[in-house]
Amino acid sequence: MRADRLMAILLFLQQREQVTAAEVARELEVSERTARRDLDALAIAGVPVYSRQGRGGGWRLVGGARTDLSGLTAGEARALFLVAGPASAATPAVKAALRKLVRALPEPFRVQAEAAASSLVMDPQRWGSSPVERRPPRFLDELQDAVIRGVQLRLGYVDSAGAATERTVHPLGIVAKGPWWYLVSHTEAGRRTFRIDRVSSADPTNDPVHRPGDFDLAESWREIADEVDRRRTPLAIQAVCVPDGIGKLRMGLGDRLEVGGATADGRIEVVIRGYNEYALAGELAGLIEWLEVTGPAGVRDRLASIGRALVERYG
After folding, report:
1. PROSITE patterns this protein is in (predicted)?
2. C-alpha 139, offset from chain centre
3. Is the torsion defined by CA of 96, 100, 102, 103 positive or negative?
4. pTM for the complete prediction?
């Protein structure tokens, strides 16, 4: 990618007092013509670089200008910016240090560095109970590169039913949800989320992404995840639980449990979400020691039916 080459040239200039186009070409494994064009692009973009003509000439940074990124490759530098992002598990001190590196970049590179820092969200809460850990999907690097560079993608995709489609999308961010990876994009039909292991092709275009000015990846993902959770667990039941049972409910129900206030008799109000009355009643029947379901009536009827069946078989 040209942006990566320009970053690599800047880092190469910092390591050497002076470089020639031929040396840059050998370092980056490109033609001398491409190297000269990239060096000119740096100067045009405002990087303090200039050329000296004639014997012993070459390219230099004005006044020996440097950043604190000497010795890093372009990929390594971008990896640091990802670590500096809000989704990272790095300590505040590490993030602060990396943000200083971002500010030390020349202006032409700072936009991509900041884009890298905000391009990824990590959501550790799994959908479902599968403990399987999966490798990063095939097109993850290409999709994240498009997010950082802000270019549209021609995306091939196979949905859960096996139907293959192709469309142009505006990639806005990447989310890791448990073992799965998702691409959040804007499309002609509005905001859409694509599971990256179902992407069959990802071809970047030269067209810029139309990114809403107030877009925030973490906030957008919270909205998406909440909507998915509502679809997966559309039924909500009300119940009261003895205080000693709240821990049991948390272990068994996870984020499907909402804990409310205390009642007059000292029990705790809770709301529990599930897929349907039958499945939720079967799940809650084993919690009878701690839990009393107060509504809806359909779930109470299911629990009563389960109780009668248990007495008939085991009583």
Report:
1. HTH_DEOR_1 (PS00894), HTH_DEOR_2 (PS51000), WYL (PS52050)
2. 14
3. positive
4. 0.53
